[in-house]
Specification:
- The protein contains 7 helices and 9 strands.
- Strands 5-6-7-3-8-9 form a 6-stranded mixed β-sheet, sandwiched between helices. A 3-stranded antiparallel β-sheet has the order 2-1-4, with helices on one face.
- Helix 5 links the parallel strand 6 and strand 7.
- It is globular.
- It binds adenosine-5'-triphosphate.
- The site of adenosine-5'-triphosphate has 11 residues, from helix 1.
């Protein structure tokens, strides 16, 4: 991509632990030191390897147990896209949901409505403004969830397995939408075709970064690791 990112994410010895039911601690992410400034970064690895945890840390949804994490320039607004759009669709009607996501950034209801229409139009969902969320297909719901995130103009997009629930056609469409975004993006994914479009791919295994490089080297490494080479 020739669109350099203006956001740098710096992790300095960032680790993340959780409490276990027997009163102990479990290390989910081992100390990680990393600087990300590419426009498209993909995070791949087996189930439970720590991909979502990394994204949640970058988004500020959870705090590191130790180490420090910084987004630069300071005050960068991240937007988080979940695998399951149900996790972020709040209102029953498409236009209302987008407007709801703007409640903090735009004071006037009329302006929220205008901005909501604008974003739905650009995503080819202009005719869905008054549709019930429940009558949309999974692909349409995922697009509406993305529209809600984009309406707030995030300066860094964190996408957590955004194509997992989509069929082939919706995956292709949604991937195009994601890849066309102006904002830099870090995407955790099992979709290796999506990972192959990134400039940099991080491979995680059991909470450790085990490979970091271009798709041409990182993806084969992950295949070997999975015994699928
Ligand atoms: N808050 C938490 N409490 C307990 N366990 C957690 C918590 N957050 C993450 N984990 C555990 O940490 C491990 C890594 O989780 P994470 O969701 O980051 O993995 P992942 O690589 O995204 O997996 P998947 O591909 O299955 O989505 C998992 O075993 C998960 O159960």
């Amino acid at each position: 991509m020739d669109n350099p990112s203006s956001v740098t994410t710096t992790l300095d010895a960032v680790a993340f632990d959780v409490d276990t039911s027997d009163g102990g601690r479990r290390r989910i992410l081992h100390p990680l030191t990393l600087s990300l400034s590419e426009h498209r970064v993909a995070v791949i690895g087996a189930n439970g390897s720590g991909k979502s945890t990394l994204l949640r840390l970058i988004a500020g949804l959870v705090a590191p147990t130790s180490g420090s994490l910084q987004l630069s320039p300071s005050g960068v607004r991240p937007g988080f896209i979940f695998a399951n759009p149900q996790a972020q669709l709040i209102m029953p009607v498409v236009g209302e949901d987008i407007a709801f996501s703007l409640r903090r950034s735009i004071g006037s209801a009329a302006q929220r409505r205008r901005r909501s229409r604008e974003i739905l139009d650009t995503m080819g969902l202009g005719d869905r403004e008054d549709s019930s969320i429940y009558e949309l297909s999974s692909g349409e719901r995922q697009k509406v969830a993305l529209a809600g995130v984009l309406a707030a103009e995030p300066e860094l997009v964190l996408a957590d397995e955004p194509t997992t629930l989509l069929d082939l056609r919706s995956t292709v469409e949604f991937t195009e939408l994601l890849m066309g975004l102006a904002a830099p993006m870090v995407v955790a994914t099992h979709d290796l075709a999506l990972a192959a479009m990134a400039e940099r791919v991080l491979v995680f295994d059991h909470g450790r970064l085990v490979q970091d490089g271009p798709p041409a080297t990182a993806i084969p490494h992950y295949r070997d690791l999975s015994g699928a080479g």
